[in-house]
């Protein structure tokens, strides 16, 4: 059941502390199970690339819709998609707009 967590720990030396389901859906029971496993539920509020199907410009536009505290869902596993270039472009623009990028683990999540 926790195969991915175990793989991440083996490869990085660190066990994950957060969990997002593949469907991004949670009911009360799912949250309880995740918490009982010692993980914190996280989700996203910006769909960054629609499963790596967006063009460079669509990714860029999606990320520019971020607000302070946003979590963006991106898929970097499709090298031929527009994700990587769209992210590069958006990061530059977001920094120019005063955004900074942080690790979730450094913040108390609501």
TrEMBL record:
<dbReference type="InterPro" id="IPR011330">
    <property type="entry name" value="Glyco_hydro/deAcase_b/a-brl"/>
</dbReference>
<dbReference type="GO" id="GO:0005975">
    <property type="term" value="P:carbohydrate metabolic process"/>
</dbReference>
<protein>
    <submittedName>
        <fullName>Polysaccharide deacetylase</fullName>
    </submittedName>
</protein>
